[in-house]
Amino acid sequence: MLPGVALCSAGRQTLKAAPGEILKRGEVESDYPEYWASTPLVADGAVAGAVIFLTDRDRLAPDRGECDLIARIGAIAAEIASGEQARRELNDRNQMLGMIEEMAGVGWWRIEKQTRHTSWSSHVFDIHGLENNGGSRSVSEGVSFYSRDDQSVLNEAIEKALETGEGYDLRLNLVRQDGKKRIVVTRSAAERAPNGEITGLFGVFRDITDYEAMLERLRRNEARYRLLAENVSDVITRVKMDGSSKYISPAIEQLLGWSVEEMSGNSLEYVHPDDREKAVVALMEALRSGKPTRLENRALHRDGSVVWCECTAKALHNDDGMPVEVVVVIRDITQRKELELELLQAKDRAEHATIAKGEFLANMSHELRTPLTSVIGYSGLLRASKQLSDQERLYAERIETSSNALLQVINDILDYSKLEADAVEIEKVAFEVSRLMSDTAGIVQRQCEEKGLELRLDIDAGLPEILSGDAARLRQVTLNFLSNAVKFTASGRVMLKAFGKETEEGGYRLRVEVRDTGIGVSEEKAELIFGRFNQADASTTRVYGGTGLGLAISRRLIELMGGSIGYVSEPGLGATFWFEVPLDFDFAVPVSVAVQTTPAIEVQGRILLVDDAAANRELVTIILSSLGLEVETASNGVEAVTAVRRRGFDLVLMDVHMPEMDGLAATREIRRSEGEESRLPIIALTANVQGEQVERCLAAGMDGHLAKPIQVGELAEAIRHWLK
Hints:
- The chain is 42% helix and 24% strand.
- It has 20 helices and 26 strands.
- The strands form 5 sheets. Strands 15, 16, 17, 18, 19, 20 and 21 form a 7-stranded mixed beta sheet that branches.
- Helix 9 runs antiparallel to helix 10.
């Protein structure tokens, strides 16, 4: 048969012939003129092909002897074809078996009963750490890879299986050739001849070391998780889609008084009826979103009490991504809820206490400022009298100084109270910087002279003429520095220095320093300097006086303005207190910050003074009369309303706290009875000086506010403004 020759008509005809039949030239139609004879190729009892004989010369059809030779050649070809087919099938089976071993991780082995030799698959060689040399091995050689105890067990199992035909299933400890220890399992079955005689054993072999390690990790993890779940105070439960509990940890008994065995399968039965709907919504949201959901709800204890719980729910999904259950962690927050309630109640109490404190401070301020108005006012008038002797004038000055010191204590307490309540607002007005500094220094000029101290001013010539900021608060802080310097300096000097520089943002950073040659501050007392109610040495309170609030207030004010504050000092050699604040350039007309001591209003008018304190009415009447004004008085709001209706006034100075009708009610009554065009200016003249109190005055219809004790300059300026 020629290789590569296409199937011809002779071949097709031969395939249809009977096994052993020989077709000859002349009997078969052929596409080849060289065709001589052919016979079917029979393998495994079936025609698997054809053997075709060709000749290269003109030759007669084969005779009997040649036909016998052709038949023998066909038989030989059939045997060769059968063997080749068997080899191909064997190779296919071996290749498939190798793929199965590789995919399943399972090898095979065979033991011949007579020789006790074994055959191993390639995967068995790999498990032993050996190269596959294709040779057979003895049973004893294979058994030698196991521990001594396992060797005896395996030998006994092999001999018993070869003797009885009963297979075995063993778990053994193997030591590879490289010394690594592995855990293997092997299973066997007997091979038998057609007559039932046992000829050997066939078995499978698998390395389960990694699988066993994974199982051990899982067992340890499960044990840890179960230990955690059963010992933590939080309850852990798994809720199925139908609402029943798949698992619930023993902590439920501590939470609700029920044991796991006593509880029903539906976890929602133990939720407070009023909270069940939102519990279902939370579970559905966890299933829908796949994200943890949190819920605070009430649960029912076995004894009938209510337990507050915090529940965190998270959905678990199967391999297809579908939610199958929800894990819920439940925590007892009853105590926290009780604390929250207590905190709310404490907050309410604190708010009421704050209101009470504010009212107390307001009342205290009013009650103290009212008599101080007379003390300061009359001492000022007395000091200005030309009829006093020098000794009497000195007494009047001492009264005035002590009264002003008491007023400063009151102002410090009120200022700090407002700062703590964040009730202080920083204003922004244009002011003359140099004038602010010089006028503020002028306030302590007389004190310096009395103590024999030199007062120096060092105002930088390059300082802008006008800047914008809270001039009043800057004066307050600067005056506090100066007052402290004078207070704690027995001899030497006090110096006020002001300078600054422009900032990259287009503003100006002002720096003010106050230096003295006083007692100084020690390093160990540095932390106390800017604290509230503190002085560097508690004993100085007795020696020098003061509330210890001034620097604390100054620090808060400077910080509110976005600045910084500090000091440098050496004990016994004096101190330098400084602050820096950002200001803006502003060329508007500045607000005067000068302290007026001899006002000249140059206006005329009729003033109604309303005050329930006779001493205050007399004092203000004297002051206003000295300014050339006509004054009429009233002792309460009822008299004030009657007076306004009876005769015309150009301005009303109205106290707030009065019997029968207070100043706010009187103002509202006056406003109701007048027209807009004939609006009478009403100015509050009161000891109520806190921000909300000032706002109430303006809301009642007043046009301005003046604080007691009376500052003559401010009073004169207000009258001049409204009567001009």
